[in-house]
Amino acid sequence: MTGGIALALLLVSSAPVSSVTEPLESIRKPARAMFVVALIYAFLVGVSSLESGIKIMGEDTTERLFSAAGNPIAALCIGILGTILVQSSSASTSIIVGLVATGKLGVDDAVPMAMGANIGTTVTNTLVSLGHIRQSSEFRRAFAAATVHDFFNVLAVAILLPLEVFFGIISSTAETISERLVGSAGSEWKSPIKAWVKEPVSWLKSFWEAVGTSGNVQGTLMVVSGLAIILLALAFITKNMRSLVADRVERSVNAMLSKGGGAAALVLGLVITIAVQSSSITTSILIPLAGAGVITLRNAYPVTLGANVGTTITALLASLATGAPEALTVALAHTTFNVFGIFLLYVIPVARYWPIFAAERLADVAVKRRTTAVAYVAVVFVVLPLLGVALLG
């Protein structure tokens, strides 16, 4: 018996590592994929719980919560700060979609918040670029590759927010699409996804009732539970999707960008971001490649634009859990904003290199004075948004 065990151990130890690990990988990947499906379901339950909790809260409470969003600049700043807080534009826009579904937050107020989410999400790759701060040439390339995303979003907001405030070009476009898909605002469309998540939400509500809560307290606990489920589900979705497609993503980026940028690079950014459910991951992959000089800033730029569009898929998915046409309108408005921004700042040749030029000039200054880079992050992503909320909210 002992000899048989020893022989088995000898055979296993002498076998190639790949022959042992391959069967494990063939089991692990489908299991991860099934886990991601379960996490997506949990994410939708979280959105529905958030919506339910807001509806339970009293009118006075919700009015105080959303009073600051009435000013478009304050709403923009709330979107920036909220996204920095949760470190995910997918999470923040999904929360915005859930709030709009309750009817307590209007579409006009939510659209600037979604624009702010676009700006807030860029802080991650800008922070990643600071890791190259000790090497001047690397830092200049990495910081420029990071801030080109910032400048694109800031310029897009500077152009499109006034047009939205005065003419409603984004919300009206999104509303037109939404009406064709699910009907007009004020009605409720029968989303099959909402029916699927109804039961778990009722269990959660019953649980908080069983512990003796009601009114604002119960509503607050439902909201907190929904937020926790959303954030945890998205975090695990991103982690697992990254594990599933990490090797393919790196190979695809290297293969595509070695041939140049253009529309193909834009599509690549969109597809990768949908796959990993995080624009921050997509753009952060580019920073070390740009810092090492493997890819140029002009080739990396369209990938970030595709990532901007790809990250809107999460809010669109969240809107399906609500059954409210207004929620779908806001999710579509986020997509519309990014598509319009690409048209204005990439498709139109004269404006294509504005963000690149601004990023390169800022990188030149940051290389000479490293404190400028840190001050830039603090002022743009924290100080100015806080002042905007404090003064205009």
Question: Shape from CA axes?
Answer: globular
Order of helices and strands: HHHHHHHHHHHHHHHHHH
Biggest sheet descriptor: none
Tell me how many strands there are. Answer: 0
Features:
393 residues; mainly alpha; 0% strand; globular
Describe it:
This protein has 18 helices and no strands. By secondary structure, the protein is mostly helical. The chain has one domain. Helix 8 crosses helix 17 and helix 13 packs antiparallel against helix 14. About 2% of the residues have low confidence.
Q: What's the topology here?
A:
Blueprint: H1 2-14, H2 17-56, H3 59-66, H4 72-86, H5 89-101, H6 107-120, H7 123-129, H8 136-167, H9 169-182, H10 192-210, H11 215-258, H12 263-276, H13 279-291, H14 297-310, H15 313-319, H16 325-347, H17 354-368, H18 370-392
At a glance:
By secondary structure, this protein is mostly helical. Helix content is 83%, strand content 0%.
